Amino acid sequence: MNRATTAIAAAALCLAAAATAQGQTAGTGSAAKTAPTLAPDIGLPGVDVIGSTPLLGSGVDPNTVPAEVRVLTPQDINRIGLPSLTDTLSTLVPSVHLNDLSGNPFQPDLLFRGFTASPVEGETQGLAVYLNGARFNSPFGDTVNWDLIPSNAIAQVNVESGNPVFGLNALGGSVAVKLKDGFTYHGGEFVAYGGSYGRAAALFQYGLEAQDTSAYIALDAIHDHNWRDTAGSELRQLYADVGWRNDRSEVHLNITADDNTLGNPGATPVDLLSIDRAANATAPNTVRNRYVSISLRGTYDVTDTTSLQALAYVSNLSQRLNNGDTTDATPCTADPTQLCEDDAETPITTPTGATVPAAIAGSDGYSGLTLEGIDSTAFGASAQVSNDAQILGRHNRLVAGVSFDGGITGFNSTTYFGGLSDNFFFVGPGYEVDQADLSTAPVSLESYNQYYGVFLTDRYELTDRFAATLSGRFNLADISLHDRLGTTLTADHQYERFNPGVGLTYQVLPPLQLFANYSEANRAPTPNELECSNPAIPCLLPNAFESDPSLKQVVAHTIELGARGRLPDVVGGRLTWDADFFHTENNDDIIFVSAPDSNAGGDFQNAGTTLRQGFEATLTWRGRGIRATLGYTYTDATYQTALALNSPNNPAADENGVIHVVPGDRLPLVPKHRATLTVDYDVTPQWTIGGSLIGNTSEYLFADDANQTKPLGGYVVANLNTSYRLTKNIQVFGVVNNVTNQRYATYGTFVPVNLISPAFTNTRVYSPAAPMEAFGGVRVTF
Length: 782
Description:
By secondary structure, this protein is mainly beta.
């Protein structure tokens, strides 16, 4: 670590010196107060500035970025009255769609151009997520717990395609969320709403500014019984910010706290769904998230052209999971009073070496229950210098900095075998299992993450219409694991890489801009991937790990070509548009592969090259009381390397349970075509009506990488919303989702369903989407 720290410190000094030199070129004293020449007006819609790096305070106009950028405002988040970050992204960003792997509306998998940000350990992550400038991907598995972000307190969301400056995991892009403060939000608001399936919520926020100080607080409480069995949720969220500023400085101290309990029924056999669409086949399945994060950030204007930004943060996540599951345990052949593994010969044992009896009280078969605990502390700091200057008479903007993100995670897992009730629930208390071959055994693991980064981005205006952006980041990842029950899991891994980026923007006409971009990004394997990468010893993620071969890091190469602009104002409105071609190739991509034994889990493997390419476009109209956005995305996500993968429950697998992937086969769970439409119309100054349409084409099931079985069907979902302002400060609203009551699924895979019930023969399992649901509420401002 001394070598890495010294190199980063030296690089930081060089970058700071370069920025200072630019500031001196621009002049000092009274000369330095001359405002730099800004980019010409390109006739594009005005929006809030975005961060050119994860740190807040280095804002740039998104119209100057040579890549696709989507900016969401509080008005977008609260468009229908029910604030939801993930639902808004899915509705207003055509290249974002949600997969409901867990079966809980507050914890979806979010996919952007075929790259995933998921709360589920073991999912392959491909997006970097930041909250108020701090890295939000968890240290243990790069997971993203969306339930921890208070949607009611969001000030801005930026979704950006490939940019190396956003560090590890930004293979497909980044999502940067900025929360409110008292300088930008004044007054108070209370929202109460409720409706279908026992949903009831109360949301409160208040912000004030007094001379040089500010304060803001948001409190949210949500109860949701949910339409599916055992899928109820309780969310308690708090966010508070205190700020101070003067003519040159601004400092904010904020805290986020959550206490959430989420029911996660997951996927259910299609045979059972045909009987009861709300059923849960293996229960209980719950997640308890307790989270606290504190961050301190500030900015200081050294001169009128040079500023410094800095951030320090620490957070703690205590996560407890109960995961009911199937088991292929069976009475032993030699002694039917004892329980054996599926070979009927290997007795199942407890930590004391005792055998597990085959007769379990209240049993209608056998099931497993895994109790998991993740206690993760993340901490980090970053600093950067931003400089605007004149070089050879042209405007130049430089941002350079350093970052450190660390994490300490304790992971514990214990598996119990018990009975299975007639409604597919675990019957306990059960027997703790500790097999000598480690196929099922207690785990106690501690992981240490140290991620270092040095980054730079520089935009230079070559002419009044033509600008070039150069960027780069050096990433160093050090990952250590310590087995607290022995030495099997102890290992050290280190990864490093420099990722470059270059982009061009050209103003063809005042209402038309072209842009092009090439960038690279990398992702280091996570601790749960590194310790589950040996095909000879599969893992029940994240229930068990083994000391395994080191995985290669994933490297993404992205090319973008795009255009954006605005047509002349006509008939009292404004029409804006953008279009973008993208091509991202992942080398040494990491995927999870099932083990040959149908109930023995699997392992992570490098899977060669994968490709995600396509086209995205949006058309937006604002005027005459109408706000409408039409979006479309074509995503061709494919394997580029031939693979032989275990998929023992896939009916199209060969006699050895293997499927054969050939180049061109589509990646599972990524629809090829996706379209969105949102419309809101002011019938009167007080009354607004609106709606949205979301359409996805079919997508292949997880574990059908060879595309040999029937895919999940496509769907079109219609939603309606309305609001009426009773007084200046009181508004009522209503929402109806899935108004045509479409029956569709957003996630599917294969499992050995005969272990759940002998009556089940179809190995396909789905996560069904919610039926029609309605909500109503009131908003009071003061």
